[in-house]
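Annotated sample (chain length 291).
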Amino acid sequence: MISSLVEEAVDQIARLDQVAADSPVAAGETLRLSAVAGAAPNPIDALVPLLAAEVDPFHEDALDPALRAWRDVVTEEVRRARGGALPSLDRLATVVPSLATYSHRPRLEATWREAPVGTAVLHRALDAAAWAPDPVTGDMLAALMLVLGGRTYQLRFLPFHGVAAADRASAIAAWRAGDETPWATAALTAAARGARRVRERLTRLAAGIADEAVTLDALGRAGITARRALRQVRGAVATTMPILAEDLGVSRPAAADALRRLEAQGLARELTGRARDRVWAYAPALALVEA
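Output written by the structure step:
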């Protein structure tokens, strides 16, 4: 039974990675930042500041320090994992101080004494999550293990995030006592389900791109700049009106008009609610993670 769950989780994660690689940049980057936002108490509320900070120094400076620290650590750890480097608990301890004196730290470090290969990647991820001091750290370590083992190129989601808290606590207690079945069953099922759901949403997003073009074609000449703006919005995690004007080689009023048209068609969304320092993102990518 466990072997079939491993195969299903591996298959669904691989399919997600392939679809994400072929998706608009905005979708992939929004998924990446949503995984970082998963470390926050309210991930959806954390995602918007992360998106805005990607393109505007004002919003970078205003970013919650704890959230910025998670983003920077995860970004660096993913980069290192893609190069084959093992997770650094010292680096993670800068955002999870309890790791510095965590009583099970040696056991946790034992889960990745060497880079995992083959189907062992999932078992190592389960083990790391089970011996982590809290669910957020455990899910992040599990996600990094998937990158380290070549199961995914970039964090798309936190694999075991979907396990209910009560079920997780009892299953992990059993794992630590030597019974791996409850935690493996719950976590692998959650990983496969989560990857499948995200992949299906990405597939629907891709299918809707043709409809977006038809919608803007109906605007006639007024939609020419809007179509160019949409390509830019899809190709970046977020944008501002001045950045868009520069990218398109048009005036700022023309860029602002294009963004208004995209907003009216549900293709772009202003994130900040501010009168100044405004940031727009590709609305279907936001809907992808909000679902």
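Annotation: The first helix runs from residue 2 to 21.
Annotation: The mean pLDDT is 93.
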